[in-house]
Amino acid sequence: MAKYFDYRHHMNSLLARESLLDKDVMAATDTPVVRMLPDVHVVKIGSRSILEAGRDIVLPVVEMLGKILKKEKLILGVGGGARSRHVFSVGLDLELPTGVLAQLSMADALGNAHILGTLLAPHGVVAIPPEIFGHLLPLFIHSAPGVIFNGVPPYSLWEHPPALGKIPPHRTDTGCLILAECFGCKSTILVKDVQGLYTEDPKVNPAAQFIDRISVAELKQEDLPTLPFDEVLLEVLETAQLVHEFQLVDGRKPENIARAVNGEHVGTIVYAR
Questions:
Q1: Structural domains of the chain, with CATH
Q2: What's the pTM value of the predicted model, to 2 decimals?
Q3: Is 89:80 a contact under the CB 8 Å cutoff?
């Protein structure tokens, strides 16, 4: 009998013959990750807290962003603010599932992205629709000083069921950090209407202590009654490879945004470990 020779090309692949359910196999995939945009800052502009707070708050922030954009590259994320909260209320009353609420909130966030884009248009910065944002982001950021995006992660109908209630757990704060992790960005800054974290609500208890720096583990142990950012953000930060911290700053003092972009510690820094 003639000897059979296999002339087919066999691909040398780490996972081709393995189960993706095997923990040892998954551990072997913990490999280095390239930083695609290492000199770019991701800045989340709070919608309800900043963008919808009126011209006396918004315009100084826009002016400061314009100054920063002359020196630094920014990816600006926004959420749906008050409109998303209203849509959530309507949806909950009609018994809509979490995935549908997530889908609706993306449309609200895009509206706020266009508002901020209009204000920053003189600086060459506009809002990019989510359909093309991710694929073309490197092109956009190398062609313009910055871009604005709908910060809501595009889980849409596939949004994870929350542990408590029905509101989509992955909102704009989380979307900005996930984006920074994917592209290996330089920093992640959340701009809100608070100085940072406190041991208690300072409006209720004036003696509440300011927290200038805290780890995810310590923050979980503190078990604060409320947080000024998405709670699931802590889980994402714990498993991130390229992003090791984010800073929460007070946008009512616009100079804090510039200082945070420059690497200064001006608010609360939450770090992974």
A1: 35-271 (3.40.1160.10)
A2: 0.91
A3: no
